[in-house]
Structure formats: C-alpha cells, structure tokens
C-alpha cells in the first residue's frame, strides 16, 4: 500500500505553481438559508480547461523523465481528464494521446483536440481501457491514470489545501466521486490539516462504485454505469483511492440524476455559476438533504467542473422545469 502524506500534496502544489489558477471559494447566501448552515462553493469549474483535472495531470507529468516526456503520454477519459492531460502536455512540451469511449461528449473530445491531443474514440468505457493498454504498449507511452495514481491524487489534493486556506474553520467538505482521485486527495489534505472536519463523498445512484466498494470491503468493478454525470461514471474505484477514502472519509452518499439536474439549475439561477452534472453532484447531496448537517456549520461544496455542451445543458434544465 502506497502511503501519501500532506507533504506530498504540498510538493504537488509547488509543481503546478504558475501553470494553473487558484480558484475561489465563494459564499452562497441562498444555499446557506436553504440548509441553515454557512455554505461556500469551491469553483473548480473556473480552473483552466473547466475542471480540476489539470492539477493531477501536471503533477504526474512533471515527475516523468525527459525520455518519458519525449515518448509521450496516454490516458483514458470521458472528457475532463482528457482535456486536463492535453493541456498539461501542451504546457510541458509533451505529446498526448487520449482514448475516449465512443459515446463521449463531442464537445469534450473537440476540446482535448484543441489542446493538441490525439483523440481516439473506441467502444464502451471498458473496451476503451483495453484499447488504451494496447496503444500504450505499442508506442511505449506513459499512462497518466485519471485517478488511481499517487501523482494524480496529490495534484487533486491541492484543492483541499486551498479550501482550508480560505475556510480554515470548515466543518464539512463535500466532494463528488468518479474513480476517487479528487476526494482521496482532498480528504488527505483536509483531514491531515483539520482532523475535526468531515469529508463526505457523493456518487450518482447509477455509478456507485466507491459506495459499493466500502460496503463490500474491497474495490469493486461495476458491470455498467447509468448516469447523466459522465465525469462520475468510472466503472471501478481505484485501489489507492479506495484505501484513502476508507481511512479518511466520513461517508459516501448517493444522489439521483433528477437531484443532480435540480442542483445544476439552482447553481445556475442563484449563484450564476455553470456546473456540469458531475460538478453539481456534491451540491445536490447538500440541497436534497442526503447529508445531515448541524445548524450553523461551515460547509464547502466542490463544483468540480463546468464542461457541458449548450444542447445538453438546455435538455437538463428543461427536464427540471417540466
């Protein structure tokens, strides 16, 4: 078992320094009134590429040798990690290949191409993983894992450091979970700095790999996923991520797609902030009452991304208004 520390996350912060935004943590009077607590939103949708993903990608790629960078990197993604790796590769002078499932968002695939990555669309997410490993071996590329790797976890953990710098007395941090890279990094950073704070993860009902892993006592792989939150639809929980979540997180709760849509609408209407479905999941759990909160608690909900095509956004908002 790999043991990561707060110092590892601080080192990652130094590695990404000057390449990425330090995103704001803003209060929401509306959500505070609705929940009887003090709510802040950590706006990773304002990060470069529109999500937190470049944090981990840059951290991993900065640790590579000159030879590995020259050969290039490869990854797999439903969208945001693709853009994060593509951006990181361009910033560090490295070639990137991205394998995406055939049904991936066209807008996210185009965005990865715009940063200079070669995008390969292939099959289901499971088949895309097989394709990735085939190309990785053929071309001698380095795999930048979207969640289950120390550098990825430490890079994403820089979000947790920033949260506590802005809200040092935070009582609760809520984070969406796909494979577990973001929550494992944030949980490690938060709990090692402020042990009294709670960290709670949120998954869609149709993609509950981490919740099932905790229930079964081991990382599990789902036969299928079914959710509008493509960024949270990883078919399995990472081994490293599972171990960190098991040690540091207080709970993992589930939300429905309808609850995610309702949160997206409220975030847009009341906070003037665009969140994609994955980015709205944490706030959906807060607003739907899935998390028990004591009156007056200081709560931070992570808006992890805002990459959504206009037609998809309109469809989700139309559903919530019907």
Provide a concise account of the structure shown.
By secondary structure, the protein is an alpha/beta fold. The protein has 14 helices and 10 strands.
Task: Describe the model.
α3 (53-62) crosses α5 (80-92). By secondary structure, the chain is an alpha/beta fold. It has helices at residues 6-16, 29-35, 53-62, 66-71, 80-92, 106-114, 125-139, 150-166, 181-193, 209-216, 239-248, 257-271, 277-287, 310-321, and strands spanning 25-27, 38-43, 73-76, 96-100, 118-121, 142-143, 172-176, 198-204, 251-255, 298-303. It has a 6-stranded mixed β-sheet, with helices on both faces. It has 14 helices and 10 strands. The longest helix is centred in the middle third of the chain and has 17 residues, at 150-166. 55% of the residues are buried. It folds into 2 domains: 6-50 and 149-321, 3-Layer(aba) Sandwich (Rossmann fold); 53-143, 3-Layer(aba) Sandwich (Rossmann fold).
Structural class: alpha/beta
Mean pLDDT: 95
Overall CATH architecture of the largest domain: 3-Layer(aba) Sandwich
Shape: globular
Number of domains: 2
The main pleated sheet reads as: 6 strands, mixed
Helicity, as a percent range: 40-55%
Give the termini distance in whole angstroms: 49 Å
Order of helices and strands: HEHEHHEHEHEHEHEHEHHEHHEH
Number of helices: 14
CATH-derived topology of the largest domain = Rossmann fold
- In the CATH hierarchy, what is the class of the largest domain? Alpha Beta
Radius of gyration of CA atoms, rounded to a whole number: 18 Å
- Strands ordered across the widest β-sheet: 1-2-10-7-8-9
Unreliable residue runs: none
Share in β-strands:
5-15%
The number of strands is: 10
């Amino acid at each position: 078992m790999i043991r990561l520390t707060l110092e590892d996350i601080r080192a990652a912060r130094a590695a990404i320094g000057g390449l990425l935004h330090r995103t704001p943590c803003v209060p929401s009077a509306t959500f505070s009134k609705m929940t009887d607590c003090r709510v802040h939103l950590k706006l990773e949708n304002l990060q470069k590429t529109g999500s937190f993903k470049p944090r981990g990608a840059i951290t991993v790629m900065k640790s590579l040798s000159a030879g590995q960078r020259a050969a290039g990197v490869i990854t797999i993604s439903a969208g945001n990690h693709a853009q994060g790796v593509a951006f990181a590769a361009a910033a560090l002078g490295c070639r990137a290949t991205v394998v995406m499932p055939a049904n991936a968002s066209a807008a996210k695939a185009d965005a990865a191409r715009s940063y200079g990555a070669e995008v390969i669309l292939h099959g289901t997410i499971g088949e895309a993983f097989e394709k990735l490993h085939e190309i990785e071996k053929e071309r001698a590329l380095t795999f930048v894992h979207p969640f289950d790797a120390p550098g990825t976890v430490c890079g994403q953990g820089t979000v947790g450091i920033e949260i506590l710098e802005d809200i040092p007395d935070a009582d609760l941090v809520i984070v969406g979970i796909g494979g577990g890279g973001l929550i494992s990094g944030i949980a490690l950073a938060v709990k090692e700095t402020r042990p009294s704070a709670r960290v709670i993860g949120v998954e869609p009902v149709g993609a509950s790999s981490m919740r099932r892993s905790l229930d079964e006592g081991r990382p599990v792989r789902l036969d299928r996923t079914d959710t509008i939150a493509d960024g949270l639809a990883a078919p399995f929980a990472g081994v490293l991520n599972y171990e960190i979540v098991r040690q540091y997180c207080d709970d993992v709760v589930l939300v429905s797609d309808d609850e995610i849509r309702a949160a997206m609408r409220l975030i847009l209407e009341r906070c003037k902030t665009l969140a994609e479905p994955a980015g709205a999941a944490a706030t959906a759990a807060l607003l739907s009452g899935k998390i028990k909160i004591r009156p007056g608690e200081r709560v931070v909900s992570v808006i992890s991304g805002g990459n959504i095509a206009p037609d998809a956004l309109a469809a989700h908002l139309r559903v919530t208004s019907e």
